[in-house]
Amino acid sequence: MKEIIIATKNAGKAKEFEHIFKPYNVRVKSLLDFEEMDDIVEDGKTFEENALIKARAIASQFNQMVLADDSGLEVDALDGRPGVYSARYAGEGRNDEDNILKVLHELEGVPTDERGARFVCALAIVTPQGDEVVVRGTCEGRILTECLGTEGFGYDPIFYLPHLSKTMAQLPKSEKNVLSHRADAFVKLQPYLEKLL
Questions:
Q1: Is 3-196 assigned to CATH 1.20.1560.10?
Q2: Is 11 annotated as a binding residue?
Q3: Of 22, 61, 62, 180, which shows the fewest CB atoms inside 10 Å?
Q4: pLDDT digits (tens, 9 = 90+) for 66-87
């Protein structure tokens, strides 16, 4: 059975990918399965650059196929911030709640129709043979003034999907996995996966 390493230590993200890879009959591992890991400096200016940096580093370290993602939130009224800094927007050592509070604080007074935002996900696959593929997926929505819902992680509780009248955090996993930015990127990745797997 082929193996693929998902380049994340985020248990929530690892579970999402495990679910996505079920039909492929592939053994999915994450960085949580490895004790020894070199530090990777993600200093790219785009989601795509960061995903490739991660995938290349881990593929060369473990000599296995790696899928890395870099994802985050872009808010129009904040000129695209938090962007590639989404996970550490409130500072190193801060958590999802701190990041959400910072975004809400920066959007105070911004009217509803100017709170447009999108989740972005860049997926990069790198194989030990040097094959590389990068795709980008998005999910459009807007930012609420308060948190709603208890599912998901990250900015999900403030990311509102107008066509569903729900936040990402109010969706069951099965529904989120179909319409998320990660799902959109994965659909674009599938033609390449068919060849690689």
A1: no
A2: yes
A3: 22
A4: 999 999 999 999 999 999 999 8
